[in-house]
């Protein structure tokens, strides 16, 4: 695969994207469940839970694996009532058991409860989503420098719509079950800090139902666009991560680019999340240099995410094993969009060696890609198709790439989620178990974040 191909090329395996509605729970409490706000989503359903303390009945929870010898053949489930208070699951009760009859109670309708999804690589600040359909011609041979020039023209046109379209993207990913995200946000001379300010305003409004980290992303090159001062301003303004981009292909000076990125992170006690698309030997050199830097800088341990990391696909199995062992020791994370086609990432091998691998949408209908669905369950499905031999247990484990490795059952089939005092952040799915949800990309019916119903409906 050439270095300058799209940073995210994959085939969508699920249905068409739809715009969803966000239904946020307010902060006040009510005495009876019948009191609802008239927020209407695309399906015409209405729902808004405003109580701080309530019961949720008929929740389908995984209880264990049925096994034949050492092989899990199916998943046992049971219906439970959840008691939810102040954003937490305070108790798992026998179904329809209400210790306090005065509390409101709602009905999940027997839908399967799964952990909230996490979209850990998305660009909320620049998108065509929510506006008219628009596809851009990217002829063969288009370079990232060509794309930078295009962005310099496009960004001023998109900026008046940044907040409105970011809101619509959040609606979309909530409708797919995600309530936690990490968004990269352009920081470069064309935009200055305007995209960051707009995104922060949106996230402040959406806080009751959505948690999102921000990566200050020097899309036009940290050195190339001379944006180190802007990046430092972004750190002072509240960005959570220092971003970076292809230090050889874009900045033309691998060590200087990476050293500058890491120094900003150290100066402001921030994490690092770099876009690394390079598949030449320079990409491998960049990965090795970053791992070495973290190894000799204890303050960076656990603070580096390599997004995309396509260079890893060029290594053989032994090379990946050796590098992954070092990455796991330094708690280095890989964020992948689970690309398909000619680029076969060693994602399972990384996970097997203890590297934390997470996934994200990346682009949703923008000048980079028109395909994004905002659906982390689709990503788990793609991961399963590409990297595992499908059976009940392996399919259930594949869900972890979408949920930050939070799973209802551990490898032994013991329930480890949900438990008392867990955050009441989850998604209700029309499926019988995790394995089916991953294999079938099952429909979502409701999404909760810290006890707030943010999309969908219960009765």
UniProtKB/TrEMBL annotation:
InterPro entries: Amidohydro_3, Metal-dep_hydrolase_composite, Metal_Hydrolase, Metallo-hydrolase_Enzymes, TAT_signal. Keywords: Signal. Residues 172-435 form the Amidohydrolase domain. Pfam families: Amidohydro_3. Residues 1-33 form the signal peptide. PROSITE patterns: TAT. NCBIfam families: PRK06846.1. This is Amidohydrolase family protein. It comes from Lelliottia nimipressuralis. The lineage of its organism: Bacteria, Pseudomonadati, Pseudomonadota, Gammaproteobacteria, Enterobacterales.
């Amino acid at each position: 695969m050439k270095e300058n191909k799209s940073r995210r090329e994959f085939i969508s395996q699920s249905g068409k994207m739809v715009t969803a509605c966000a239904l946020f729970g307010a902060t006040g409490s009510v005495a009876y469940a019948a009191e609802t706000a008239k927020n209407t989503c695309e399906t015409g359903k209405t729902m808004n839970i405003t109580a701080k303390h309530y019961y949720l009945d008929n929740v389908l929870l995984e209880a264990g694996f049925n096994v034949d010898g050492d092989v899990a053949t199916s998943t046992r489930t049971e219906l439970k009532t959840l008691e939810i208070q102040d954003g937490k699951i305070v108790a798992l009760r026998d179904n329809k058991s209400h210790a306090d009859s005065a509390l409101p109670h709602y009905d999940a309708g027997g839908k399967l409860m799964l952990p909230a999804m996490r979209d850990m690589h998305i660009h909320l600040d620049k998108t065509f989503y929510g506006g008219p359909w628009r596809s851009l011609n990217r002829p063969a041979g288009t370079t990232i420098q060509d794309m930078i020039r295009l962005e310099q023209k496009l960004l001023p046109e998109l900026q008046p719509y940044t907040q409105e379209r970011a809101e619509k993207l959040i609606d979309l990913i909530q409708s797919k079950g995600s309530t936690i995200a990490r968004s990269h946000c352009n920081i470069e001379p064309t935009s200055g800090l305007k995209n960051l300010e707009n995104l922060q305003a949106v996230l402040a409004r959406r806080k009751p139902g959505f948690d999102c980290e921000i990566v200050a992303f020097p899309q036009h090159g940290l050195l190339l666009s001379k944006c180190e001062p802007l990046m430092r301003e972004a750190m002072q303004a509240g960005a959570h991560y220092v971003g970076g981009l292809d230090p050889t292909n874009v900045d033309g000076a691998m060590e200087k680019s990476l050293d500058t990125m890491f120094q900003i992170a150290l100066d402001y006690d921030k994490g690092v999340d770099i876009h690394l698309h390079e598949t030449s030997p320079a990409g491998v050199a960049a990965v090795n240099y970053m791992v070495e830097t973290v190894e000799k800088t204890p303050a960076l341990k656990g603070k580096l995410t390599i997004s995309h990391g396509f260079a890893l696909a060029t290594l053989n199995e032994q090379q990946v094993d050796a590098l992954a062992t070092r990455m796991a020791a330094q708690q280095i994370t890989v964020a992948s969009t689970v690309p398909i086609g000619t680029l076969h990432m060693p994602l399972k091998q990384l996970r097997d060696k203890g590297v934390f691998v997470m996934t994200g949408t990346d682009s949703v209908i923008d000048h980079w890609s028109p395909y994004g669905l905002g659906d982390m369950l689709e990503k788990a499905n793609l991961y399963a198709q590409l990297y595992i031999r499908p059976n009940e247990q392996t399919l259930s484990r594949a869900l972890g790439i979408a949920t930050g490795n939070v799973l209802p059952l551990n490898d032994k089939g013991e329930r480890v989620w949900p438990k008392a005092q867990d955050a009441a952040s989850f998604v209700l799915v029309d499926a019988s178990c995790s394995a089916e949800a991953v294999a079938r990309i099952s429909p979502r019916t409701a999404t909760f974040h810290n006890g707030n119903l943010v999309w969908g409906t219960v009765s």
